[in-house]
Design brief:
about 290 residues; six-stranded parallel β-sheet; 10 helices; 12 strands; about 20% strand
Length: about 290
């Protein structure tokens, strides 16, 4: 019996319309249900989409339970992207390169895994933000599943060089060796010049900034946090103090990677511009309340 043909203890009726979900831990902050509802409406598709909290030590059983309950696919977020790659029976080339999966598609007993993070990031940065990645010096902070999804797509854009820095330097070195990029310690970062600095650490989820010197942003043209929030993240505030010319959170990447996942599941790629504008207006409207809660 193959891994994906096993049944879990979760039993439910097969939904009358195609059902999807985003699975993570934590997950309450996710805007993915709103995004996919807007995508489905614009494309005339009938789907349901939820955000579901999976146990930290039980992703495989949880995901298989959803498959057995009739779900057609899942988005996967922190901290389960490596687990999702192990669960999949077949991986797309970009997911295989990343070793991490953020999109699962269920077809019978087969589980297909894809990674849409990298293409989502590139489309947002080069499309919405008009930042040219070719010949750029790139610094990525972090070495988790989200970062793994970025590096392959970034390399395809032919940057000048890519450096990875992580609090645990050994993990950065492992990632650098695997992808053929450079590993730096946090202490080495301020001495280098970077056109774009990307925060792929989970610090923003805990209202913290990565432990880098503001001097890192002296010549930085774009500081980009993969986290999105109603208010500027601690990383964005650090980049502003350091003099970064342009600063962005990860809302645009979230929308773009979701559109690519929708394409994987539904065979059509929805328009993203209107969805981004609507979500940005919603987040902007939440800023006073968010500030009061902090």
């Amino acid at each position: 019996m193959t891994r994906s043909s096993r049944s879990s203890s979760v039993v439910a009726a097969v939904p009358s319309v195609a059902s999807y979900a985003v699975v993570g831990n934590p997950i309450q902050h996710s805007l993915s249900p709103q995004i996919h509802a807007m995508f489905a409406a614009s494309c005339g598709h009938q789907i349901t989409y939820e955000k579901l909290l999976a146990p930290l030590d039980g992703f495989e059983e949880f995901a298989l339970g959803l498959r057995d309950a009739g779900y057609h696919g899942l988005n996967v977020t922190i901290p389960f992207k490596l687990d999702a790659a192990k669960l999949a029976d077949e991986l797309t080339p970009r997911a295989r390169l990343a070793g991490a999966v953020n999109t699962l598609k269920f077809e019978g007993d087969t589980i297909f895994g894809d990674n849409t993070d990298g293409i989502g990031f590139v489309r947002d940065v080069q499309g919405r933000l008009k930042f040219k990645l070719e010949d750029a010096a790139v610094l990525i902070l972090g070495a988790g599943g989200g970062v793994r999804g970025l590096i392959g797509a970034l390399l395809e854009e032919k940057p000048k060089w890519i450096a990875v820095a992580n609090r645990t330097h050994g993990r950065a070195e492992e990632l650098a060796d695997e992808f053929g990029v450079e590993a730096l310690s946090f202490d080495e970062v301020p001495a280098e010049h970077f056109d774009i600095v990307i925060n792929g650490t989970p610090t923003g989820l805990h209202a913290q900034a990565p432990s880098i010197d503001p001097e890192t942003f002296d010549d930085c043209m774009l500081a980009y946090d993969l986290v999105y929030d109603p208010h500027p993240t601690p990383f964005m505030e650090l980049a502003r103090r350091g003099g970064a010319k342009q600063i962005s959170d990860g809302l645009g990447m979230l929308v773009e990677q979701a559109a690519e996942a929708f394409l994987v599941w539904r065979g059509v790629r929805p328009d993203t511009a209107a969805v981004y504008r609507d979500l940005r207006r919603q987040l902007d409207a939440m800023q006073p309340a968010a500030a009061a809660a902090r």
